[in-house]
UniProtKB/TrEMBL annotation, chain A:
The record marks S368 as: Required for activity. ATP binds at G165, D166, R167, G168, T169, G170, K171, T172. It is a peripheral membrane protein. Keywords: ATP synthesis, ATP-binding, Cell membrane, CF(1), Hydrogen ion transport, Ion transport, Membrane, Nucleotide-binding, Translocase, Transport. Belongs to the ATPase alpha/beta chains family. It comes from Cephaloticoccus primus. It is an enzyme of class 7 (translocase). The gene is atpA. This is ATP synthase subunit alpha. Residues 377-501 form the ATP synthase alpha subunit C-terminal domain. Produces ATP from ADP in the presence of a proton gradient across the membrane. The alpha chain is a regulatory subunit. Residues 145-370 form the ATPase F1/V1/A1 complex alpha/beta subunit nucleotide-binding domain. Residues 22-88 form the ATPase F1/V1/A1 complex alpha/beta subunit N-terminal domain. It is found in: Cell membrane; Membrane. HAMAP family: ATP_synth_alpha_bact (MF_01346).
From TrEMBL, chain B:
It holds the Pfam family OSCP. It comes from the Bacteria. One of its GO terms (cellular component) is membrane. GO terms for molecular function: proton-transporting ATP synthase activity, rotational mechanism. This is ATP synthase F0F1 subunit delta. It is found in: Membrane. Keywords: ATP synthesis, Hydrogen ion transport, Ion transport, Membrane, Transport.
């Protein structure tokens, strides 16, 4: 009934002769994507301002005599004296499942050439983060598919886990692997018909990246069949700094829609270092006072208000954030890295040295941490990998000492031997996330010392052979591990028997290969 | 192109503007006094100060005048009616001035300070074409 009346009222409003009030101003200057405007006495902070030629702006500086606006769009047609007017609206982006599989810009406009996006809802780009009452503690796992992370630095739904490291250490790869893994889990979960299954939708926000890199990322997701569960928000290096500044907030708004509607989402901000640089550029042009490294005083708030929007809500869904920060020469104590480290619930630190040694993913176990800890781990992973982090840390310490002397006691040698095997076991090719049941099985084999008689150099091949064996011949066992999510006595015995069966065939094959080589 | 006004020039212009007001309205005698003072004691950036001062005075004057753009004929009564209505709305004395603008096709466009009230056919057509 009310809908019918609303429709009639809308029709009346269209024909009504009532005057429309607009608050106007005139452009005093335009430079570097920022316009200084005279007038606009009624403008609100962060309000959208309409420029001639269809461009929109965002009122960021409200001063006594003028308003500073960042312009989102083409500035080439704007000139001094042009009239602009307020819209009474805050900047909003389209949200919903219609965006899945699409690439959009910071304002939610499609950029993938696949036609218009069907959306019914819009969310404001800037939103207050959920308060403490609405939140729930993080205790549901979000599997990255990367064994080193899922077993030692577990991530939970609603957590903010920073990925930090120098350029070219595999930060984006970890994020992409995680997105691919969510898609794989979604496919299996939705196909199982389990009504309690909660898929995780992913949002990848590319800030200040080369367009070629973004295309490569989209291709990788498409090749892995993950694009259907993913939304790409792009603000490439060629985009104006205003769009680069807004893109993460737009992505967060898109993710919030999933969270508010009882679904789980994962958002990757790639990367927040470039985001801070874009914000510094805008702030300097707006003549805001600059502080350390010329960043404005509110650069901490820039990231804290963004990352606080990721949460697990009571009775609703969750939004997990994986922000990425690029360091220079491994310096995690720089301004922006320390800011983001203090905001997030842990960090995955990637080391250039490890990467160059061929240890990939190059996760530094000592410097990486998840503040949610084992609360976000399934019991099976805790059973097989509970002590791994300690063992690896001890190995690194011993390995450093072992460099100084050749005479080592048997116990130290055994520890070093085991440590180097674990390091080999954690090596994983990119875009190849492992399901959690396979991770449990491989770690169980390590725990039960099935790899002890395999040469360190052959561990990668042996583990690949074990994964292959289990996937092709013990599918039911893997399904049982996945569904039970813990290893009881019966399951442990079955898994042990399966690994023994593999070991026998692997030893024969390895022996045959060695004989052939002779 | 003139150099951008410094903070000091803007501050001086604001101070001069404050001196030009009597009971919250721009007083011509005060403005004359300010101009005479500036001629006698030129500041560091005279052009920039005068431009900033002019902008502030123009903005204040615009708040006290309704510019009524109209396509068809408009009577004196309508202008006086608008003056009365807007004096009440903005809680300050305003005067109305008619300006003929054929591009509106029909209707009115009122401009007072930063506010624009659109009641013209041209605006409705523009909205229809944008929808």
């Amino acid at each position: 009934m009310s809908t019918v009346l609303e429709q009639i009222e809308q029709q009346i409003a269209k024909l009504s002769n009532k005057a429309v009030k607009k608050n106007t101003g005139t452009i005093r200057s335009v430079a570097d994507g920022v316009a200084k405007i005279d007038g606009l006495s009624d403008v609100m902070y962060n309000e959208m301002v309409q420029f001639p030629g269809g461009a929109t702006g965002l009122a960021l500086n409200l001063e006594t005599d003028e308003v500073g606006c960042v312009i989102l769009g083409d500035t080439s047609q704007l000139k001094e004296g042009d009239e602009v007017f307020t819209t009474g609206k805050l900047l909003s982006v389209p949200v919903g499942k219609g965006l899945l599989g699409r690439a959009v810009d910071a304002l939610g406009n499609p950029v993938d050439g696949k036609g218009p996006i069907e959306v019914k809802e819009y969310y404001p780009v800037e939103r207050i983060a959920p308060g403490i009452i609405a939140r729930k503690s993080v205790d549901q796992p979000l599997f990255t598919g990367i064994m080193a992370i899922d077993s030692m630095i577990p991530i939970g739904r609603g957590q903010r886990e920073l990925i930090i490291g120098d350029r070219g250490t595999g930060k984006t790869t970890i994020a992409i692997d995680t997105i691919i893994n969510q898609a794989k889990i979604n496919k299996v979960g939705l196909a199982s018909g389990d009504s309690s299954f909660r898929p995780v939708y992913s949002i990848y926000v590319a800030i200040g990246q080369k367009n070629s890199n973004i295309v490569r990322t989209i291709s990788a997701l498409e090749a892995a069949g993950a694009l259907d569960y993913t939304i790409i928000v792009t603000a490439p290096a060629a985009d104006n700094p205003a769009n680069q500044y807004l893109a993460p907030y737009s992505g967060a708004a898109i993710g919030e829609w999933f969270m508010e509607n009882g679904m789980d989402a994962l958002i990757v901000y790639d990367d927040l270092s470039k985001h801070a640089v874009a914000y510094r550029q805008i702030s300097l042009i707006l003549k805001r006072p600059s502080g350390r490294e010329a960043y404005p005083g509110d650069v901490f708030y820039l990231h804290s208000r963004l990352l606080e929007r990721s949460a697990r809500l009571d009775g609703k869904g969750s939004l997990t954030a994986l922000p990425i920060i690029e360091t220079l020469a491994g310096d995690v104590s720089a301004y922006i890295p320390t800011n983001v480290i203090s905001i997030t619930d842990g960090q995955i630190f990637l080391e250039t040295d490890l990467f160059n040694q061929g240890i990939r993913p190059a996760v530094s176990v000592g410097l990486s941490v998840s503040r949610v800890g084992s609360a976000a781990q399934v019991k099976a992973t805790k059973q097989v990998g509970g002590k791994l982090k300690g063992e690896l840390a001890q190995f690194r310490e011993l390995a450093a000492f072992a460099q100084f002397g050749s005479d080592l006691d048997a116990k130290t040698k055994a520890q070093l031997d085991r440590g180097s095997r674990i390091v080999e076991l954690f090596k994983q090719p990119q875009f190849n996330p492992l399901p959690i049941e396979l991770q449990v099985a491989v770690l169980f084999a390590m725990q039960q010392e099935f790899f002890n008689d395999v040469a360190v150099g052959d561990i990668v091949a042996a583990s690949a052979s074990l994964k292959d064996f289990l996937t092709t011949r013990k599918e039911a066992l893997l399904t049982e591990i996945r569904t039970k999510a813990k290893l009881d006595d019966a399951l442990e015995a079955a898994l042990k028997a399966a690994i023994q069966e593999w070991k026998a065939s692997y030893a024969t094959a390895a022996g045959g290969a060695a004989a052939a080589a002779r | 192109m003139a150099a951008a006004p410094t903070k000091a020039s803007q501050q001086l212009a604001r101070q001069l503007f404050a001196l030009s007001l009597v009971n919250g309205l721009v007083a011509p005698a005060q403005v004359e006094g300010v101009l005479a003072y500036l001629e006698k004691h030129p500041p560091a950036q005279p052009l920039q100060v005068l431009q900033a001062y002019r902008r502030l005075v123009a903005r204040e004057l615009a708040k006290g005048e309704i510019v009524v753009e109209h396509a068809g004929p408009i009577g004196e009564g309508i202008l006086r009616g608008l003056e009365g209505a807007f004096t009440q709305k903005y809680k300050r004395q305003v005067t109305a001035r008619g300006v003929h603008n054929a591009s509106l096709i029909a209707g009115l466009r009122l401009r007072i300070g930063d506010d624009v009230y659109e009641a013209s056919i041209a605006n409705q057509l523009a909205q229809l074409s944008a929808a």
